[in-house]
Amino acid sequence: MNEEAKKYLNRMTSPMIFWWAMLFKLPSAIFWRLRVKSLDLKSCTVTIPYFWRSQNPFKSIYFAAMAGAAELSTGALCQLAMAGKGKFSMLVVDFRAEYYKKANQKIAFSCNQGEELCGLIDALKVGDMDKITTVSTGVSPSGEIVAKFYVTWSFKRKS
């Protein structure tokens, strides 16, 4: 892991630094109280609590709040894979969700495609573009799968 990746990892896993960064970059993450529970080159886990700010009228976590947690779990891995490797543009180009259970407790969204992302980023040459569909699985504390989110990211290496 290069120095930029280590710095990014420290920023994302430090609660205070994460809070300040999200205040300016993604305030909904603060509102919904998202937390990066773990992040390394292989995987990322983000939790979202079930409470009044993330709740919908049907007494479950609002779909957009879950989507935010799922996107953060994949996006943080993307950012970590790109850290210190030059300039890139990245963009969500497709998004799909499957819901299995009612989300009425804290949910942990995990993406385990870090190595695949690193391989894709390392293979890009200046001007090249590629995309990858990442999967973030939301699991309840009892281990039940609540939802799966499929986030397709597009990457282009800049000069």
Low-confidence stretches are none
The percent range for helix content is 25-40%
Strand order of the largest sheet: 1-2-4-5-6-3
Radius of gyration based on Cα positions: 16 Å
Architecture in CATH? Roll
CATH topology: Thiol Ester Dehydrase, Chain A
Instruction: Please give the domain count.
Output: 1
Q: Please write the string of helix (H) and strand (E) elements.
A: HHHEEHEEHEE
Q: How does the major sheet shape up?
A: 6 strands, antiparallel
What integer is the average pLDDT? 96
The proportion of strand residues reads 25-35%
The tally of helices reads: 5
CATH 4th-level superfamily: Hotdog Thioesterase
Question: N- to C-terminal separation?
Answer: 22 Å
By helix and strand content, what is the structural category? alpha+beta
The counted number of beta strands is 6
